[in-house]
Write a structure and sequence with these properties.
Blueprint lengths: L17 E5 L11 H7 L3 E7 L1 H11 L9 E5 L2 H4 L5 H15 L5 E6 L1 H5 L4 H12 L4 E6 L9 H10 L10 E5 L4 H14 L4 E4 L14 E5 L5 H9 L3 E2 L7 H15 L4 H26 L3 E4 L6 H12 L2 E7 L8 H6 L6 E5 L1 H11 L3 E4 L1 H9 L4 E3 L2 H4 L8 H19 L1
Parallel strand pairs: 1-12, 2-3, 2-4, 4-5, 6-7, 6-8, 8-9, 10-11, 10-13, 11-12, 13-14
Helix pairs in contact: 7-9, 10-11, 11-17
């Protein structure tokens, strides 16, 4: 293999019409992103300024046992705060002081806004500035909003990383930055492949430690590993970095195109790129064969939840032979999705936003074999006889890259196999 195999031309959906809906929606709030962010940045702490409902959401989503000591918590806003009887800023300073004295290992503290803190107009950005004066420089305090009023599900990560961008060290040296939270095993695999390709100055945002955050400047080229980072990408571009346009690294085809785009941007020859990617791509294709036998020909419908829907649909359609009934996504960023849209089958039904009752009616009419949706819709749909897959699992699970391609396909094959066994 001495050249890059081009992606087959497709009719694509670059110019396809998109149904835009602005009705009732069923999604988690952006606080959910803390569940994977706190695992990634190992010396950071996420303090949600919110209600007991916020605390219960995080505890349930993370599955943290009572004897664990996670790196997130909730500063409860109670009736005294809402009534203005107590000074919310004084209370926040007191809670942060107790936290820092108990957890001196923390190097970065995120104050995370919620619906209650938005309602009482608590300015966490000012609180962060105030706390930095008293706690810095050993502890850096940042703020962002995970409020369901402002963010949905994965947008919490975008808000967090966008808050980090102004704090990144400045450097105009040539470097590649991978943007988006990845599991450590995926980062290690990607680092190894970039090294083999000849790209050695590679940084990841977010990094594993607060002190390891990559520098950024005019020599920085960045590659999005997640499709829901519009605000972060804009912040990096404002600091002089340039985005490498590519499909997302889901499946063999997407991962090959993702690495190829990065390598070409650094002037690496196609023959060398092909030689490096040949073995992992062939292993991944072989591993996908079992799932393809289960998934091919089945119809799938995506409810809008994570913004992963379009890259996932491309993977399932082109590599596993699934039929796309509808791809719903919370927000369609046409620039970041251009390469993905071009690879979708022509005529694919695309929707942006949500009017949940109307989409449920379309789901019943389409009668898909598998529905990808949020947890709040899964049980009602299962009660109607539909087979479902929780979209949140696709964010919690390592799915990027060659080695994870079969694991990603398995997440969709498993509910179909379960349904087949129950029908026997």
């Amino acid at each position: 293999m001495n050249q890059i195999t081009p992606i087959a031309e497709a009719a694509g959906c670059t110019q396809s019409p998109v149904l835009r809906e602005r009705g009732q929606r069923e999604v988690f709030c952006g606080l959910t992103g803390i569940v994977w962010l706190h695992r990634r940045i190992q010396d950071a702490f996420f303090l949600v300024v919110g209600s007991r409902t916020c605390a219960h959401l995080l505890q349930s989503a993370a599955g943290v046992m009572i004897f664990a000591e996670p790196r997130f918590a909730t500063a409860i806003i109670d009736e005294r705060d809402l009534a203005g009887i107590s000074d919310a800023n004084d209370e926040l300073d007191r809670v942060v002081g107790r936290l820092v004295s108990r957890r001196p290992d923390i190097k970065m503290l995120f104050l995370v806004g919620s619906c209650p803190s938005e309602v009482i107009k608590l300015d966490l950005s000012r609180a962060a500035i105030r706390l930095n004066k008293s706690l810095g420089p050993d502890l850096r305090v940042l703020s962002y909003s995970g409020s369901g009023i402002e963010t949905t599900f994965t947008e919490g990560e975008d808000a967090c990383l966008a808050a980090l961008v102004p704090e990144l060290p400045a450097s105009d040296a040539a470097r590649l930055m991978i943007v988006g939270t990845l599991a450590e095993i995926v980062e290690d695999q990607f680092t190894r492949l970039f090294t083999e390709l000849g790209i050695k100055n590679v940084g990841f945002l977010p990094a594993r430690q607060a002190a390891m955050m990559p520098s950024v400047g005019r020599g920085t080229k960045f590659l999005l590993a997640q499709p829901f980072l519009a605000g972060t990408a804009l912040g990096l571009e404002r600091r002089g970095a340039s985005r490498i346009a590519a499909p997302f690294p889901l499946g063999v085809e997407g991962t090959t195109a993702w690495f190829t785009a990065a390598a070409r941007s650094f002037g690496i020859a196609d023959a060398h790129i092909a030689a490096v990617l040949k073995a992992p791509a062939e292993r991944a294709q072989h591993a996908l064969a079992r799932q393809r036998a289960t998934l091919a020909g089945n119809k799938i419908m995506f409810f809008p939840d994570s913004q992963l829907e379009i890259p996932l649909a491309r993977f399932l359609s082109r590599e596993l032979g699934m039929v796309l009934a509808e791809i719903g996504t919370p927000f369609l960023h046409r620039e970041h999705m251009a390469e993905e849209l071009a690879l979708l089958p022509g005529g694919t039904f695309l929707s942006e936003g949500q009017d949940v009752e109307k989409q449920l009616d379309r789901c019943r009419a389409a009668a898909p074999d598998l529905v990808v949706c949020g947890m709040g819709l899964a049980n009602p749909l299962e009660a109607e006889g539909f087979t479902t897959k929780w979209s949140i699992e696709l964010v919690f699970t390592p799915v990027q890259g060659f080695e994870q391609a079969a694991d990603l396909a398995e997440l969709f094959a498993r509910p179909l196999r379960r349904r087949a066994m129950l029908r026997v």
